[in-house]
Amino acid sequence: MGEVLIKVDGVSKKFAKDLKKSLIYGLSDVFSGIIGKKQDKSLRGDEFWAVKDISFEVRRGECLGLIGHNGAGKSTLLKILNGLISPDEGSVTMYGKIGALIELGAGFNPILTGRENIYNNAAIIGFNKQEIETKFEDIVAFAELEDFIDMPVQNYSSGMKVRLGFAIAAQMEPDVLIIDEVLAVGDLGFILKCFKQIDKLLPHTAVVFVSHSMPMISRVANQILLLARGETEYLGNEVGKGIDIYYNRFVDNESTVFLDDGILELKKVQLLNVKEYYKEVPVIKWGDDLIIFFKIIFKQSEELPLFRIIINDKEQKPVGIFQTNTLNSDLTIEDNQLNFYLLHEKIQLSKGFYSIDLSVFKFNSNNPIYRINNVLSFQVVHDEDVWPPFLLNASYFNVKS
């Protein structure tokens, strides 16, 4: 890795919850600065620490993934990094040209055209007119705004603003690149193009990347900072560990019934072959058999239904569906009760938290009669931090020529 381009040392920032007090405190701090009086660093009435004692370094060729729930302090820290606000304590040192995309439309003059905003923004970063003209066509092409470049930015859609903002920040090849969640506004094709550009820039740039999408974070980050209530909960190179801690906050055992025709009642669901629990969530090892027990009570005489059982990841994205039962399956309703096991041998889901959704249909008409989400949650553990949904078993063989 190259030289340190971002150095954050003990940075803290406090705000007042009440606007009136915030203005009074601000004027008091300005006056204290003028007369050279040392400011009181302790919290005053209605004040709170938005960020507290944050320290990290990012070198050229590194990407820091910044994560945390809403209100954790990410936006405040980004504004300090970008120079929009000053810290109350600590220091931020950044070297080279800085490109930032931290807020939708930030830095754009809405009454100016896209062309004029390109020159303005690139000049603010530190590029001269000749350097901007050299990159101008690449910026417009990357943003896919050839037909709209001379239209006022106030008439741009949110997606167009994101495309133009990222194109300026990335195509000018800054030394430091700061990217907030705004990429989530773009369409899939543009997001993929953005990541290709980040891959191209990364060897020569220090990147701070903020996102609530853990797959995106794991895609580009080689170190991670997890904020909680303005403080560092985890900082390190084990990206998977930081993501695990982030996900652990959202462990949920509550199920939700979305459809119930009154035909059946799900009496019990249990994951078997479990040796340990995390916050009452069963834990199984990668490669173990997944065995789920279902107990269903039928409230009226009913033929065997069709079961569709789906696995979702922690972001509630479906990652797999089990084969459905058939009329020839070894399932029998006895005394209005059906007990059965679902067996999936040697599970190869990558480490993480997963949940099960159950939908029940009539066999002949395929009409839904029952649906319950998050009927069961479980965690898969493995030594490797792998964030694609599957860690597939494989063998490697030497071939002699």
- The portion of residues assigned to helices is 10-25%
Overall morphology: elongated
Mean pLDDT: 86
Order of helices and strands: EHEEHEEHHHEHEHEEHEEEEEEEEEE
Architecture of the largest domain, CATH level 2? 3-Layer(aba) Sandwich
Number of helices: 8
The CATH topology of the largest domain, please?
Rossmann fold
What structural category arises from helix and sheet content? Answer: alpha/beta
Low-confidence stretches: none
The total strand number stands at 19
What is the CATH superfamily label of the largest domain?
A: P-loop containing nucleotide triphosphate hydrolases
Question: In the residues, how many domains can be counted?
Answer: 2
Q: What is the CATH level 1 assignment of the largest domain?
A: Alpha Beta
Termini separation: 38 Å
Largest sheet: 7 strands, mixed
Strand content: 25-35%
The value of Rg in angstroms is 27 Å
Organism: Flavobacterium frigidimaris
Keywords: ATP-binding, Nucleotide-binding, Transport
Family: Belongs to the ABC transporter superfamily.
Domain ABC transporter: 25-254
